[in-house]
Design brief:
The protein is an alpha/beta fold. It has one domain: Alpha-Beta Barrel (TIM Barrel), CATH 3.20.20.70. It contains 15 helices and 16 strands. The longest helix is centred in the middle third of the chain and has 19 residues. The model has no long low-confidence stretch (mean pLDDT 92).
Length: 388
């Protein structure tokens, strides 16, 4: 639905997680009988959870731990793990710095160049755990880093930018030929990020193995404030999933949609899947894990930008192991643990046996869904009354 926001200027109504709810089905399914698996190309994952390629979330140890549990953690090849022989020292400097100096510290630490030998070493460290290995880089570095990671044994490569499009005009730098890159890599390539139907379809048509959806929703990201761009995650997921479905009908090839960012609870995850996502990529909930390198701190991928940082360091605390966050038992009351259990329970109540069925769930506009009847929780700042 569109509205006029002024003379001859129309604006479309869009929706985020807090403005919608899912309607229970006319049958119920035992949560233990639900199937949460999904595929990226021919690689099958038991659970539809990816950990964001952020330095406060994923290092090689975290990747091994998460991937053993059936999900997929993505290592940032533009990050501290490939700039320093011992990235823990750099992380400690970030964790212990004065909040007022955080941006300055980021910019100093990320000035160190990427050591290409460390790309191979980090991939090999993850592969030693006998799990799938996924890594990412920005488009400017993909053509150089991609082959190095592939030869070292990486199973999946992600090309991630704040906004990724097929056409990129620049008078100062060589642009990435995405079609050629996807074809030449010979391993599955994820592309992102995007939020619109047209761009999603164009990216899918390159032969991408998956699409990352979301611009600026992350807990540590300030892109929406600094640049003023973004589309709420429910609407962006629905639109990009429509592009996936059109492409599937046209070609018979199914390309998974991965909603990236903005989710804090199991309910947010469930709404992403119901909006059309095949999987979700999450940062801040996983930054709370004991295995996460950030020790309870989290920062965005564009935080260290030399001239226009678009992120900040946020304190999320350490609440439990990655296994507890994914599978429980939940030790907190805010919905941020046992995310897989929440998804399976929601699927059961919705009458869905698998992810594809959940994508057909009825969604309603319900801005009161989080406040209705929750006066005491909000007054006492417990459960659903906690601020995100």
């Amino acid at each position: 639905m569109s509205y006029f926001i002024g003379r001859n200027r129309e604006a479309r109504q869009t929706y985020g997680y807090d403005e919608v709810a899912l309607v229970p089905g006319n049958i119920a399914v035992d949560p233990d009988d639900t199937d949460t698996s999904f595929n990226i190309a021919d690689i099958k994952f038991k659970i539809p959870f990816l950990a964001s390629a952020m330095d406060g979330v994923v290092n090689t140890r975290f990747a091994a731990a998460m991937n053993r549990l059936g999900g997929l953690a993505v290592l940032n090849l533009d990050g501290l793990s490939t700039r320093y022989e011992n990235p823990d020292e750099a992380v400690n400097e970030i964790v212990n710095c004065d909040p007022a100096k955080a941006t300055e510290v980021f910019q100093k630490l990320y000035k160190a160049p990427v050591n290409k030998k460390l790309i191979s070493r980090r991939v090999e460290e993850i592969k030693k755990a006998k799990v799938p290995c996924a890594v990412s880089s920005i488009p400017q570095n993909a053509a150089e880093f991609g082959p190095i990671a592939r030869e070292a044994g990486a199973d999946i490569f992600a090309v991630q930018a704040t906004v990724l499009t097929i056409k990129y005009e620049s008078t100062k730098q060589k642009t990435l030929d995405i079609h050629k890159f996807v074809k030449d890599m010979k391993i599955p390539v994820l592309l992102g990020n995007c939020v619109t139907y047209r761009v999603a379809l164009e990216l899918i048509e390159t032969g991408a193995a998956g699409l990352l959806v979301g611009v600026g929703p992350g807990a540590a990201c300030t892109t929406r404030g600094v640049l003023g761009i973004g589309v709420p995650q429910v609407t962006s997921t629905v639109d990009c999933a429509a592009a996936r479905d059109f492409y599937y009908k046209k070609t018979g090839k199914y390309v998974p949609i991965i909603t990236d960012g903005g989710m804090h609870t199991g309910g947010d995850v469930c709404k992403s899947i119901a909006s059309g996502a095949d999987a979700v990529m999450i940062g801040s909930p996983f930054a709370k894990a004991t295995e996460a390198p950030g020790k309870g701190f989290h920062w965005g991928m564009a935080t260290p930008h030399a001239n226009l940082p678009r992120g900040t360091r946020v304190h999320v605390g350490v609440t439990g192991s990655i296994e507890e966050i994914l599978f429980g038992p939940a030790r907190v009351d805010d919905g941020s643990q046992n995310l897989v259990g929440a998804l399976k329970t929601s699927m059961g109540a919705l009458g869905c046996h698998n992810i594809r069925e959940m994508q057909l769930t009825q969604i309603i506009i319900a801005p009161s869904i989080k406040s209705e009847g929750k006066l005491l929780q909000r007054a006492q700042v417990v459960g659903m009354g906690k601020q995100k």
